[in-house]
Input
Amino acid sequence: MENNTGKPYAIGIDIGGTNTVFGLVDAQGNVLSHNGFKTKDYPDINRYADTLGTHLLQLVETAGGRKNIRGIGVGAPNANYYTGCIEQAPNLPWKGIVPLADMLRERTGIAVSMTNDANAAALGEMTYGAAWGMKDFIMITLGTGVGSGIIINGQLVYGHDGLAGELGHVIVRPGGRLCGCGRRGCLETYCSATGIVRTVHEVLTSTDEPSRLRRIPLEQVTSKDIYDAAEQGDKLALEIFRFTGTILGEAFANFIAFSGPEAIVLFGGLAKAGHYIIDPIREAMEANVMNIYKGKTRLLVSQLKDSDAAILGAGALGWEAV
Amino acid sequence: MENNTGKPYAIGIDIGGTNTVFGLVDAQGNVLSHNGFKTKDYPDINRYADTLGTHLLQLVETAGGRKNIRGIGVGAPNANYYTGCIEQAPNLPWKGIVPLADMLRERTGIAVSMTNDANAAALGEMTYGAAWGMKDFIMITLGTGVGSGIIINGQLVYGHDGLAGELGHVIVRPGGRLCGCGRRGCLETYCSATGIVRTVHEVLTSTDEPSRLRRIPLEQVTSKDIYDAAEQGDKLALEIFRFTGTILGEAFANFIAFSGPEAIVLFGGLAKAGHYIIDPIREAMEANVMNIYKGKTRLLVSQLKDSDAAILGAGALGWEAV
Output
Protein backbone atom coordinates (compact mmCIF):
# COMPACT_ATOMS: atom_id res chain seq x y z
CA MET A 1 0.00 0.00 0.00
CA GLU A 2 2.97 2.33 -0.62
CA ASN A 3 1.76 5.79 -1.62
CA ASN A 4 3.63 7.30 -4.51
CA THR A 5 0.96 9.82 -5.46
CA GLY A 6 1.80 12.44 -2.85
CA LYS A 7 -1.74 12.31 -1.52
CA PRO A 8 -1.87 14.14 1.84
CA TYR A 9 -2.83 12.46 5.11
CA ALA A 10 -3.14 13.27 8.77
CA ILE A 11 -2.46 10.74 11.50
CA GLY A 12 -5.21 10.34 14.08
CA ILE A 13 -4.55 8.76 17.50
CA ASP A 14 -7.20 8.01 20.10
CA ILE A 15 -5.92 7.18 23.57
CA GLY A 16 -8.38 5.46 25.87
CA GLY A 17 -7.99 3.81 29.24
CA THR A 18 -8.18 0.40 27.57
CA ASN A 19 -6.98 0.79 23.97
CA THR A 20 -4.81 3.10 21.91
CA VAL A 21 -5.92 3.16 18.27
CA PHE A 22 -4.53 5.09 15.31
CA GLY A 23 -4.58 5.32 11.55
CA LEU A 24 -4.06 7.47 8.49
CA VAL A 25 -6.92 9.83 7.65
CA ASP A 26 -7.34 11.24 4.17
CA ALA A 27 -9.11 14.44 3.17
CA GLN A 28 -12.29 12.52 2.34
CA GLY A 29 -12.54 11.02 5.82
CA ASN A 30 -11.33 7.51 5.05
CA VAL A 31 -9.30 5.75 7.75
CA LEU A 32 -6.44 3.61 6.42
CA SER A 33 -4.04 1.26 8.21
CA HIS A 34 -6.23 1.24 11.30
CA ASN A 35 -4.23 -0.40 14.11
CA GLY A 36 -3.87 -0.36 17.88
CA PHE A 37 -2.59 -1.86 21.13
CA LYS A 38 -3.54 -2.06 24.80
CA THR A 39 -2.82 1.18 26.66
CA LYS A 40 -2.66 -0.76 29.93
CA ASP A 41 0.30 -2.84 28.74
CA TYR A 42 2.49 0.27 29.11
CA PRO A 43 2.47 1.63 32.66
CA ASP A 44 5.78 3.35 31.82
CA ILE A 45 5.13 6.43 29.69
CA ASN A 46 8.51 6.28 27.95
CA ARG A 47 7.95 2.71 26.78
CA TYR A 48 4.43 3.70 25.73
CA ALA A 49 5.76 6.62 23.65
CA ASP A 50 8.47 4.40 22.12
CA THR A 51 5.94 1.77 21.05
CA LEU A 52 3.49 4.33 19.71
CA GLY A 53 6.35 6.14 17.97
CA THR A 54 7.39 2.94 16.18
CA HIS A 55 3.82 2.41 14.94
CA LEU A 56 3.63 6.03 13.78
CA LEU A 57 6.83 5.70 11.73
CA GLN A 58 5.26 2.68 10.02
CA LEU A 59 2.23 4.84 9.15
CA VAL A 60 4.56 7.51 7.78
CA GLU A 61 6.19 4.93 5.55
CA THR A 62 2.81 3.69 4.36
CA ALA A 63 1.86 7.27 3.46
CA GLY A 64 4.96 7.61 1.31
CA GLY A 65 7.08 9.62 3.74
CA ARG A 66 6.86 12.60 6.07
CA LYS A 67 6.17 14.98 3.19
CA ASN A 68 2.71 13.44 2.81
CA ILE A 69 1.73 13.82 6.49
CA ARG A 70 0.17 17.17 7.41
CA GLY A 71 0.31 16.50 11.13
CA ILE A 72 -0.57 14.22 14.01
CA GLY A 73 -3.70 14.75 16.09
CA VAL A 74 -4.27 13.08 19.45
CA GLY A 75 -7.53 12.73 21.36
CA ALA A 76 -7.04 11.73 24.99
CA PRO A 77 -8.83 12.22 28.30
CA ASN A 78 -7.68 15.34 30.18
CA ALA A 79 -5.47 16.47 27.28
CA ASN A 80 -4.77 20.19 27.29
CA TYR A 81 -4.65 21.74 23.80
CA TYR A 82 -2.50 24.66 24.92
CA THR A 83 0.22 22.67 26.68
CA GLY A 84 0.13 19.40 24.73
CA CYS A 85 0.05 17.57 28.05
CA ILE A 86 -2.25 14.95 29.54
CA GLU A 87 -3.07 16.34 32.97
CA GLN A 88 -3.99 14.11 35.93
CA ALA A 89 -6.07 11.64 33.89
CA PRO A 90 -7.75 9.31 36.40
CA ASN A 91 -8.36 6.54 33.83
CA LEU A 92 -4.90 6.39 32.24
CA PRO A 93 -1.89 4.51 33.68
CA TRP A 94 0.36 7.61 33.90
CA LYS A 95 0.13 9.93 36.87
CA GLY A 96 0.74 13.68 36.96
CA ILE A 97 1.36 15.78 33.87
CA VAL A 98 2.58 13.94 30.76
CA PRO A 99 4.03 16.06 27.89
CA LEU A 100 2.96 13.51 25.29
CA ALA A 101 2.77 15.92 22.31
CA ASP A 102 6.47 16.72 22.72
CA MET A 103 7.36 13.05 23.21
CA LEU A 104 5.65 12.07 19.95
CA ARG A 105 7.10 15.03 18.07
CA GLU A 106 10.61 13.97 19.13
CA ARG A 107 10.00 10.41 17.97
CA THR A 108 8.46 11.29 14.57
CA GLY A 109 9.68 14.74 13.58
CA ILE A 110 6.06 15.66 12.83
CA ALA A 111 3.88 18.41 14.37
CA VAL A 112 1.49 17.09 17.06
CA SER A 113 -1.73 18.64 18.42
CA MET A 114 -3.68 17.20 21.34
CA THR A 115 -7.09 17.78 22.82
CA ASN A 116 -9.56 15.81 24.89
CA ASP A 117 -11.50 13.03 23.22
CA ALA A 118 -14.84 14.86 23.11
CA ASN A 119 -13.25 17.92 21.49
CA ALA A 120 -11.64 15.66 18.91
CA ALA A 121 -15.03 14.06 18.26
CA ALA A 122 -16.50 17.53 17.61
CA LEU A 123 -13.77 18.28 15.07
CA GLY A 124 -14.45 14.91 13.43
CA GLU A 125 -18.16 15.68 13.09
CA MET A 126 -17.41 19.14 11.67
CA THR A 127 -14.85 17.86 9.17
CA TYR A 128 -16.37 14.52 8.14
CA GLY A 129 -19.68 13.95 9.91
CA ALA A 130 -23.15 15.18 10.84
CA ALA A 131 -21.97 18.76 11.49
CA TRP A 132 -20.22 19.15 8.15
CA GLY A 133 -20.07 22.82 7.22
CA MET A 134 -21.53 24.06 10.51
CA LYS A 135 -19.85 26.86 12.42
CA ASP A 136 -21.84 26.66 15.66
CA PHE A 137 -22.75 23.34 17.24
CA ILE A 138 -22.28 21.28 20.38
CA MET A 139 -21.04 17.68 20.40
CA ILE A 140 -22.24 15.53 23.30
CA THR A 141 -20.59 12.12 23.80
CA LEU A 142 -22.65 9.73 25.90
CA GLY A 143 -20.20 7.08 27.07
CA THR A 144 -18.79 5.95 30.42
CA GLY A 145 -19.00 9.66 31.19
CA VAL A 146 -20.65 12.55 29.36
CA GLY A 147 -18.19 14.58 27.31
CA SER A 148 -18.64 17.68 25.19
CA GLY A 149 -16.94 19.62 22.45
CA ILE A 150 -18.25 23.10 21.66
CA ILE A 151 -17.72 24.76 18.28
CA ILE A 152 -18.34 28.51 18.07
CA ASN A 153 -17.52 30.62 15.00
CA GLY A 154 -16.03 27.48 13.44
CA GLN A 155 -13.51 27.05 16.29
CA LEU A 156 -13.28 24.67 19.22
CA VAL A 157 -13.85 26.41 22.54
CA TYR A 158 -10.74 25.74 24.64
CA GLY A 159 -11.35 28.52 27.14
CA HIS A 160 -8.86 30.58 29.06
CA ASP A 161 -6.72 27.62 30.18
CA GLY A 162 -7.50 24.87 27.66
CA LEU A 163 -10.06 23.05 29.80
CA ALA A 164 -13.41 24.52 28.70
CA GLY A 165 -16.37 22.42 27.63
CA GLU A 166 -17.08 20.04 30.48
CA LEU A 167 -20.84 19.97 29.98
CA GLY A 168 -21.07 16.54 31.58
CA HIS A 169 -20.29 18.36 34.81
CA VAL A 170 -22.92 21.05 34.59
CA ILE A 171 -25.02 20.67 37.73
CA VAL A 172 -28.56 19.81 36.65
CA ARG A 173 -29.94 18.61 40.00
CA PRO A 174 -28.50 20.62 42.91
CA GLY A 175 -27.86 18.19 45.76
CA GLY A 176 -28.53 15.24 43.43
CA ARG A 177 -26.49 12.12 42.70
CA LEU A 178 -22.86 12.04 43.86
CA CYS A 179 -20.45 12.40 40.93
CA GLY A 180 -16.95 11.01 40.43
CA CYS A 181 -15.78 14.64 40.36
CA GLY A 182 -16.74 14.98 44.03
CA ARG A 183 -19.78 17.20 43.50
CA ARG A 184 -23.48 16.37 43.32
CA GLY A 185 -26.08 16.48 40.55
CA CYS A 186 -23.79 16.61 37.48
CA LEU A 187 -25.41 15.79 34.12
CA GLU A 188 -23.03 12.82 33.88
CA THR A 189 -24.49 11.15 36.97
CA TYR A 190 -27.80 10.76 35.10
CA CYS A 191 -26.97 10.44 31.41
CA SER A 192 -23.74 8.43 31.13
CA ALA A 193 -23.63 4.63 30.86
CA THR A 194 -23.06 4.41 34.62
CA GLY A 195 -25.71 7.07 35.28
CA ILE A 196 -28.30 5.03 33.45
CA VAL A 197 -27.44 1.94 35.49
CA ARG A 198 -28.18 4.03 38.59
CA THR A 199 -31.52 4.99 37.06
CA VAL A 200 -32.28 1.35 36.23
CA HIS A 201 -31.60 0.47 39.86
CA GLU A 202 -33.83 3.30 41.11
CA VAL A 203 -36.67 2.44 38.75
CA LEU A 204 -36.55 -1.33 39.34
CA THR A 205 -36.52 -0.97 43.12
CA SER A 206 -39.29 1.64 43.18
CA THR A 207 -41.96 -0.71 41.82
CA ASP A 208 -42.96 -4.37 41.42
CA GLU A 209 -43.79 -3.85 37.76
CA PRO A 210 -42.39 -6.76 35.73
CA SER A 211 -39.52 -5.91 33.39
CA ARG A 212 -37.11 -7.84 31.17
CA LEU A 213 -34.39 -5.75 32.78
CA ARG A 214 -34.84 -7.68 36.03
CA ARG A 215 -33.25 -10.71 34.33
CA ILE A 216 -29.91 -8.95 33.82
CA PRO A 217 -27.40 -8.45 36.68
CA LEU A 218 -27.63 -4.73 37.43
CA GLU A 219 -23.94 -3.95 36.91
CA GLN A 220 -24.09 -5.52 33.44
CA VAL A 221 -27.05 -3.53 32.09
CA THR A 222 -26.20 -1.50 28.96
CA SER A 223 -28.07 1.03 26.82
CA LYS A 224 -28.45 -1.81 24.31
CA ASP A 225 -30.28 -3.97 26.87
CA ILE A 226 -32.65 -1.13 27.70
CA TYR A 227 -33.19 -0.56 23.98
CA ASP A 228 -33.95 -4.25 23.41
CA ALA A 229 -36.43 -4.20 26.30
CA ALA A 230 -38.07 -1.03 24.95
CA GLU A 231 -38.44 -2.73 21.56
CA GLN A 232 -40.46 -5.43 23.37
CA GLY A 233 -42.71 -2.76 24.87
CA ASP A 234 -41.11 -2.97 28.33
CA LYS A 235 -42.77 -0.17 30.32
CA LEU A 236 -39.88 0.43 32.71
CA ALA A 237 -37.34 0.56 29.87
CA LEU A 238 -39.41 3.28 28.23
CA GLU A 239 -39.63 5.12 31.54
CA ILE A 240 -35.84 4.98 31.93
CA PHE A 241 -35.31 6.50 28.47
CA ARG A 242 -37.90 9.19 29.18
CA PHE A 243 -36.31 10.12 32.52
CA THR A 244 -32.83 10.26 30.97
CA GLY A 245 -33.91 12.12 27.84
CA THR A 246 -35.84 14.71 29.85
CA ILE A 247 -32.76 15.58 31.92
CA LEU A 248 -30.67 15.86 28.75
CA GLY A 249 -33.28 18.02 27.02
CA GLU A 250 -33.57 20.39 29.98
CA ALA A 251 -29.78 20.76 30.05
CA PHE A 252 -29.66 21.33 26.27
CA ALA A 253 -32.19 24.18 26.63
CA ASN A 254 -29.70 26.00 28.87
CA PHE A 255 -26.79 25.23 26.52
CA ILE A 256 -28.78 26.80 23.67
CA ALA A 257 -29.24 30.03 25.66
CA PHE A 258 -25.45 30.16 25.95
CA SER A 259 -24.19 29.61 22.42
CA GLY A 260 -27.24 29.48 20.10
CA PRO A 261 -25.99 26.39 18.23
CA GLU A 262 -27.30 25.21 14.85
CA ALA A 263 -27.25 21.63 16.11
CA ILE A 264 -26.49 19.39 19.05
CA VAL A 265 -24.81 16.20 17.83
CA LEU A 266 -25.03 13.05 19.95
CA PHE A 267 -22.53 10.21 19.93
CA GLY A 268 -22.24 7.00 21.95
CA GLY A 269 -24.21 3.96 22.95
CA LEU A 270 -27.19 5.84 24.36
CA ALA A 271 -27.53 7.88 21.15
CA LYS A 272 -28.22 4.62 19.32
CA ALA A 273 -31.48 4.15 21.21
CA GLY A 274 -33.13 6.16 18.42
CA HIS A 275 -36.53 7.67 19.02
CA TYR A 276 -36.76 6.15 22.50
CA ILE A 277 -34.17 8.67 23.69
CA ILE A 278 -34.37 11.36 20.98
CA ASP A 279 -38.11 12.02 21.42
CA PRO A 280 -37.96 12.81 25.15
CA ILE A 281 -34.79 14.88 24.62
CA ARG A 282 -36.48 16.94 21.91
CA GLU A 283 -39.69 17.39 23.91
CA ALA A 284 -37.86 18.57 27.04
CA MET A 285 -35.51 20.77 25.02
CA GLU A 286 -38.32 22.52 23.15
CA ALA A 287 -40.47 22.81 26.29
CA ASN A 288 -37.65 24.49 28.21
CA VAL A 289 -35.97 26.63 25.61
CA MET A 290 -36.73 30.35 25.28
CA ASN A 291 -39.21 31.37 22.57
CA ILE A 292 -36.56 33.04 20.41
CA TYR A 293 -34.71 29.70 20.10
CA LYS A 294 -37.67 27.37 19.61
CA GLY A 295 -37.37 25.00 16.65
CA LYS A 296 -33.98 26.42 15.69
CA THR A 297 -31.50 23.87 17.04
CA ARG A 298 -31.36 20.49 15.30
CA LEU A 299 -30.83 17.31 17.28
CA LEU A 300 -28.55 15.00 15.30
CA VAL A 301 -26.99 11.60 15.88
CA SER A 302 -23.44 11.00 14.66
CA GLN A 303 -23.32 8.86 11.53
CA LEU A 304 -19.62 8.06 11.82
CA LYS A 305 -18.67 4.41 12.31
CA ASP A 306 -17.77 3.74 15.95
CA SER A 307 -14.47 2.16 15.00
CA ASP A 308 -13.45 5.17 12.88
CA ALA A 309 -14.95 8.12 14.76
CA ALA A 310 -12.22 8.61 17.35
CA ILE A 311 -9.40 8.35 14.79
CA LEU A 312 -11.22 10.67 12.38
CA GLY A 313 -11.70 13.26 15.12
CA ALA A 314 -8.05 13.14 16.13
CA GLY A 315 -7.08 13.17 12.46
CA ALA A 316 -9.15 16.33 11.91
CA LEU A 317 -7.03 17.96 14.62
CA GLY A 318 -3.90 16.62 12.90
CA TRP A 319 -4.68 18.55 9.71
CA GLU A 320 -4.17 21.79 11.58
CA ALA A 321 -1.31 20.70 13.88
CA VAL A 322 1.60 23.14 14.05
CA MET B 1 -14.62 71.68 19.09
CA GLU B 2 -13.94 71.29 15.36
CA ASN B 3 -11.38 68.50 14.78
CA ASN B 4 -8.75 69.36 12.22
CA THR B 5 -6.24 66.77 13.39
CA GLY B 6 -7.74 63.77 11.60
CA LYS B 7 -8.04 61.91 14.91
CA PRO B 8 -10.25 58.83 14.40
CA TYR B 9 -13.55 58.28 16.22
CA ALA B 10 -16.37 55.80 16.36
CA ILE B 11 -19.95 56.80 17.10
CA GLY B 12 -21.64 54.87 19.88
CA ILE B 13 -25.44 54.79 20.25
CA ASP B 14 -27.32 53.15 23.10
CA ILE B 15 -31.05 52.69 22.57
CA GLY B 16 -33.10 52.03 25.67
CA GLY B 17 -36.81 51.91 26.32
CA THR B 18 -36.62 55.34 27.94
CA ASN B 19 -33.62 57.16 26.47
CA THR B 20 -31.49 57.13 23.36
CA VAL B 21 -27.95 58.36 24.08
CA PHE B 22 -24.95 58.73 21.79
CA GLY B 23 -21.53 60.29 21.48
CA LEU B 24 -18.13 60.21 19.83
CA VAL B 25 -15.72 57.62 21.22
CA ASP B 26 -11.98 57.97 20.72
CA ALA B 27 -9.37 55.20 20.73
CA GLN B 28 -8.54 55.89 24.38
CA GLY B 29 -12.13 55.36 25.52
CA ASN B 30 -13.15 58.97 26.02
CA VAL B 31 -16.75 59.91 25.24
CA LEU B 32 -17.17 63.33 23.59
CA SER B 33 -20.31 65.29 22.67
CA HIS B 34 -22.47 63.01 24.81
CA ASN B 35 -26.12 63.77 23.97
CA GLY B 36 -29.53 62.13 23.88
CA PHE B 37 -33.31 62.29 23.64
CA LYS B 38 -36.38 60.37 24.79
CA THR B 39 -36.94 57.20 22.77
CA LYS B 40 -40.61 57.29 23.73
CA ASP B 41 -41.17 60.62 22.00
CA TYR B 42 -40.87 58.82 18.64
CA PRO B 43 -43.45 56.07 18.26
CA ASP B 44 -42.94 56.37 14.48
CA ILE B 45 -39.68 54.65 13.51
CA ASN B 46 -39.11 56.89 10.48
CA ARG B 47 -39.34 60.05 12.53
CA TYR B 48 -37.08 58.41 15.14
CA ALA B 49 -34.46 57.57 12.50
CA ASP B 50 -34.69 61.09 11.02
CA THR B 51 -34.10 62.71 14.41
CA LEU B 52 -31.27 60.35 15.32
CA GLY B 53 -29.77 60.82 11.84
CA THR B 54 -29.72 64.61 12.28
CA HIS B 55 -27.89 64.24 15.60
CA LEU B 56 -25.41 61.82 14.02
CA LEU B 57 -24.58 64.27 11.23
CA GLN B 58 -23.82 66.87 13.90
CA LEU B 59 -21.41 64.40 15.53
CA VAL B 60 -19.78 63.80 12.14
CA GLU B 61 -19.26 67.52 11.75
CA THR B 62 -17.78 67.77 15.24
CA ALA B 63 -15.35 64.96 14.36
CA GLY B 64 -14.14 66.89 11.32
CA GLY B 65 -16.08 64.96 8.69
CA ARG B 66 -16.92 61.42 7.65
CA LYS B 67 -13.27 60.60 6.97
CA ASN B 68 -12.59 60.67 10.72
CA ILE B 69 -15.43 58.29 11.64
CA ARG B 70 -14.53 54.60 11.53
CA GLY B 71 -18.11 53.44 11.96
CA ILE B 72 -21.32 53.59 13.97
CA GLY B 73 -22.11 51.00 16.64
CA VAL B 74 -25.57 50.56 18.11
CA GLY B 75 -26.52 48.69 21.28
CA ALA B 76 -30.24 47.99 21.53
CA PRO B 77 -32.48 45.37 23.10
CA ASN B 78 -33.23 42.45 20.75
CA ALA B 79 -30.83 43.74 18.11
CA ASN B 80 -29.57 41.03 15.75
CA TYR B 81 -25.94 41.46 14.72
CA TYR B 82 -26.35 39.45 11.53
CA THR B 83 -29.41 41.26 10.16
CA GLY B 84 -28.94 44.75 11.62
CA CYS B 85 -32.56 44.61 12.76
CA ILE B 86 -34.29 45.14 16.09
CA GLU B 87 -36.56 42.11 16.39
CA GLN B 88 -39.77 42.13 18.44
CA ALA B 89 -38.40 44.26 21.27
CA PRO B 90 -41.06 44.31 24.01
CA ASN B 91 -39.71 47.47 25.66
CA LEU B 92 -39.29 49.65 22.57
CA PRO B 93 -42.09 51.63 20.86
CA TRP B 94 -41.68 49.92 17.45
CA LYS B 95 -43.34 46.61 16.74
CA GLY B 96 -42.11 43.81 14.50
CA ILE B 97 -38.75 43.84 12.78
CA VAL B 98 -37.04 47.21 12.36
CA PRO B 99 -34.07 47.42 9.93
CA LEU B 100 -32.46 50.24 11.89
CA ALA B 101 -28.87 49.65 10.76
CA ASP B 102 -29.90 50.22 7.13
CA MET B 103 -32.00 53.26 8.09
CA LEU B 104 -29.04 54.90 9.84
CA ARG B 105 -26.61 53.97 7.05
CA GLU B 106 -28.90 55.67 4.52
CA ARG B 107 -29.08 58.82 6.62
CA THR B 108 -25.35 59.12 7.37
CA GLY B 109 -23.44 57.29 4.63
CA ILE B 110 -21.47 55.53 7.37
CA ALA B 111 -21.18 51.78 8.13
CA VAL B 112 -23.43 50.68 11.02
CA SER B 113 -23.19 47.56 13.22
CA MET B 114 -25.79 46.60 15.82
CA THR B 115 -25.97 44.16 18.67
CA ASN B 116 -27.88 43.81 21.88
CA ASP B 117 -26.97 46.06 24.79
CA ALA B 118 -25.29 43.38 26.89
CA ASN B 119 -23.10 42.28 23.97
CA ALA B 120 -22.12 45.92 23.42
CA ALA B 121 -21.27 46.18 27.12
CA ALA B 122 -18.95 43.15 26.78
CA LEU B 123 -17.15 44.78 23.85
CA GLY B 124 -16.84 47.97 25.92
CA GLU B 125 -15.23 46.09 28.81
CA MET B 126 -12.84 44.27 26.45
CA THR B 127 -11.82 47.44 24.63
CA TYR B 128 -11.80 49.99 27.44
CA GLY B 129 -12.69 48.35 30.76
CA ALA B 130 -12.12 45.62 33.30
CA ALA B 131 -11.61 42.91 30.65
CA TRP B 132 -8.99 44.84 28.70
CA GLY B 133 -6.77 42.39 26.83
CA MET B 134 -8.82 39.32 27.75
CA LYS B 135 -9.88 36.83 25.07
CA ASP B 136 -12.28 34.73 27.13
CA PHE B 137 -14.72 36.30 29.56
CA ILE B 138 -18.41 36.67 30.31
CA MET B 139 -20.16 39.99 30.89
CA ILE B 140 -23.23 39.90 33.12
CA THR B 141 -25.43 43.01 33.28
CA LEU B 142 -27.66 43.16 36.33
CA GLY B 143 -30.37 45.67 35.46
CA THR B 144 -34.13 45.57 34.95
CA GLY B 145 -33.34 42.18 33.48
CA VAL B 146 -30.17 40.10 33.47
CA GLY B 147 -28.22 40.38 30.23
CA SER B 148 -25.04 38.72 29.06
CA GLY B 149 -22.31 39.08 26.49
CA ILE B 150 -19.91 36.17 25.99
CA ILE B 151 -16.42 36.61 24.54
CA ILE B 152 -14.62 33.48 23.32
CA ASN B 153 -11.32 33.55 21.43
CA GLY B 154 -11.55 37.35 21.48
CA GLN B 155 -14.89 37.35 19.64
CA LEU B 156 -18.46 37.97 20.71
CA VAL B 157 -20.58 34.82 20.63
CA TYR B 158 -23.52 35.57 18.32
CA GLY B 159 -24.49 31.96 17.72
CA HIS B 160 -26.06 30.40 14.69
CA ASP B 161 -28.76 33.05 14.24
CA GLY B 162 -27.39 36.10 16.04
CA LEU B 163 -29.31 35.59 19.28
CA ALA B 164 -26.87 33.62 21.50
CA GLY B 165 -25.95 34.68 25.02
CA GLU B 166 -29.21 34.97 26.94
CA LEU B 167 -27.79 33.81 30.25
CA GLY B 168 -30.47 35.72 32.14
CA HIS B 169 -32.83 33.08 30.81
CA VAL B 170 -30.91 30.01 31.87
CA ILE B 171 -33.28 28.05 34.10
CA VAL B 172 -31.71 27.87 37.56
CA ARG B 173 -34.77 26.76 39.52
CA PRO B 174 -36.95 24.35 37.51
CA GLY B 175 -40.59 25.21 38.26
CA GLY B 176 -39.49 28.39 40.06
CA ARG B 177 -40.58 32.02 39.66
CA LEU B 178 -42.59 32.94 36.56
CA CYS B 179 -40.50 34.93 34.08
CA GLY B 180 -41.51 37.62 31.59
CA CYS B 181 -40.36 35.19 28.87
CA GLY B 182 -43.23 32.87 29.80
CA ARG B 183 -41.12 30.17 31.44
CA ARG B 184 -40.29 29.49 35.08
CA GLY B 185 -37.12 29.69 37.16
CA CYS B 186 -34.96 31.87 34.88
CA LEU B 187 -31.87 33.46 36.48
CA GLU B 188 -33.42 36.86 35.72
CA THR B 189 -36.41 36.20 37.98
CA TYR B 190 -34.04 36.11 40.97
CA CYS B 191 -31.11 38.38 40.17
CA SER B 192 -32.50 41.35 38.22
CA ALA B 193 -33.76 44.56 39.87
CA THR B 194 -37.31 43.23 39.71
CA GLY B 195 -36.17 39.78 40.85
CA ILE B 196 -34.67 41.26 43.97
CA VAL B 197 -37.88 43.11 44.76
CA ARG B 198 -39.62 39.73 44.64
CA THR B 199 -37.00 38.38 47.04
CA VAL B 200 -37.49 41.37 49.35
CA HIS B 201 -41.21 40.66 49.38
CA GLU B 202 -40.65 36.97 50.13
CA VAL B 203 -38.14 37.64 52.88
CA LEU B 204 -40.15 40.44 54.56
CA THR B 205 -43.36 38.42 54.59
CA SER B 206 -41.68 35.23 55.84
CA THR B 207 -40.68 36.72 59.19
CA ASP B 208 -41.48 39.43 61.74
CA GLU B 209 -37.82 40.38 62.00
CA PRO B 210 -37.53 44.19 61.98
CA SER B 211 -35.87 45.71 58.92
CA ARG B 212 -35.29 49.19 57.54
CA LEU B 213 -36.63 47.83 54.27
CA ARG B 214 -40.13 47.70 55.75
CA ARG B 215 -40.22 51.52 55.64
CA ILE B 216 -39.96 51.63 51.83
CA PRO B 217 -42.95 50.88 49.57
CA LEU B 218 -42.10 47.48 48.10
CA GLU B 219 -42.33 48.49 44.45
CA GLN B 220 -39.81 51.30 45.09
CA VAL B 221 -37.08 49.20 46.72
CA THR B 222 -33.77 49.35 44.84
CA SER B 223 -30.40 47.60 45.21
CA LYS B 224 -29.17 50.88 46.69
CA ASP B 225 -31.78 50.73 49.48
CA ILE B 226 -30.79 47.16 50.31
CA TYR B 227 -27.15 48.21 50.29
CA ASP B 228 -27.86 51.13 52.63
CA ALA B 229 -29.74 48.81 54.99
CA ALA B 230 -26.91 46.27 54.89
CA GLU B 231 -24.47 49.04 55.78
CA GLN B 232 -26.57 49.59 58.93
CA GLY B 233 -26.28 45.88 59.75
CA ASP B 234 -29.83 45.08 58.67
CA LYS B 235 -30.08 41.30 58.97
CA LEU B 236 -32.73 40.82 56.28
CA ALA B 237 -30.83 43.00 53.80
CA LEU B 238 -27.78 40.79 54.27
CA GLU B 239 -29.93 37.71 53.83
CA ILE B 240 -31.33 39.11 50.57
CA PHE B 241 -27.85 39.69 49.17
CA ARG B 242 -26.74 36.21 50.26
CA PHE B 243 -29.76 34.54 48.64
CA THR B 244 -29.25 36.49 45.40
CA GLY B 245 -25.48 36.03 45.29
CA THR B 246 -25.74 32.31 45.93
CA ILE B 247 -28.04 31.83 42.94
CA LEU B 248 -25.71 33.89 40.75
CA GLY B 249 -22.64 31.96 41.95
CA GLU B 250 -24.26 28.57 41.29
CA ALA B 251 -25.18 29.71 37.79
CA PHE B 252 -21.66 31.05 37.18
CA ALA B 253 -20.20 27.64 38.10
CA ASN B 254 -22.13 26.10 35.20
CA PHE B 255 -21.13 28.94 32.84
CA ILE B 256 -17.47 28.22 33.70
CA ALA B 257 -17.86 24.54 32.73
CA PHE B 258 -19.07 25.79 29.35
CA SER B 259 -16.49 28.35 28.27
CA GLY B 260 -13.68 28.33 30.87
CA PRO B 261 -13.56 32.14 31.09
CA GLU B 262 -10.68 34.15 32.57
CA ALA B 263 -13.20 36.45 34.28
CA ILE B 264 -16.86 37.16 34.82
CA VAL B 265 -17.47 40.92 34.74
CA LEU B 266 -20.49 42.36 36.52
CA PHE B 267 -22.24 45.61 35.63
CA GLY B 268 -25.33 47.33 36.98
CA GLY B 269 -26.86 48.54 40.22
CA LEU B 270 -26.59 45.24 42.07
CA ALA B 271 -22.88 44.95 41.21
CA LYS B 272 -22.35 48.14 43.22
CA ALA B 273 -23.34 46.39 46.45
CA GLY B 274 -19.66 45.44 46.77
CA HIS B 275 -18.70 42.64 49.13
CA TYR B 276 -22.32 42.17 50.25
CA ILE B 277 -23.07 40.60 46.87
CA ILE B 278 -19.58 39.63 45.63
CA ASP B 279 -18.72 37.46 48.65
CA PRO B 280 -21.75 35.17 48.39
CA ILE B 281 -21.33 34.98 44.60
CA ARG B 282 -17.68 33.95 44.96
CA GLU B 283 -18.44 31.43 47.72
CA ALA B 284 -21.23 29.75 45.75
CA MET B 285 -19.22 29.83 42.53
CA GLU B 286 -16.15 28.21 44.07
CA ALA B 287 -18.24 25.70 46.03
CA ASN B 288 -20.04 24.56 42.90
CA VAL B 289 -17.34 24.70 40.24
CA MET B 290 -15.43 21.57 39.17
CA ASN B 291 -11.99 21.07 40.72
CA ILE B 292 -10.13 21.76 37.47
CA TYR B 293 -11.63 25.27 37.37
CA LYS B 294 -11.32 26.23 41.03
CA GLY B 295 -9.69 29.58 41.68
CA LYS B 296 -9.18 30.22 37.97
CA THR B 297 -12.03 32.59 37.04
CA ARG B 298 -11.83 36.14 38.37
CA LEU B 299 -14.94 37.96 39.51
CA LEU B 300 -14.71 41.60 38.44
CA VAL B 301 -16.94 44.65 38.69
CA SER B 302 -17.05 47.06 35.75
CA GLN B 303 -15.13 50.26 36.43
CA LEU B 304 -16.69 52.19 33.55
CA LYS B 305 -18.79 55.23 34.41
CA ASP B 306 -22.50 54.41 34.16
CA SER B 307 -23.16 57.38 31.92
CA ASP B 308 -20.39 56.37 29.49
CA ALA B 309 -20.49 52.57 29.56
CA ALA B 310 -23.32 52.02 27.09
CA ILE B 311 -21.93 54.50 24.56
CA LEU B 312 -18.40 53.09 24.94
CA GLY B 313 -19.67 49.57 24.33
CA ALA B 314 -21.59 50.59 21.24
CA GLY B 315 -18.60 52.65 20.12
CA ALA B 316 -16.34 49.58 20.46
CA LEU B 317 -18.66 47.85 18.00
CA GLY B 318 -18.51 50.91 15.76
CA TRP B 319 -14.73 50.59 15.33
CA GLU B 320 -15.27 47.31 13.51
CA ALA B 321 -18.48 48.22 11.63
CA VAL B 322 -18.45 47.30 7.96
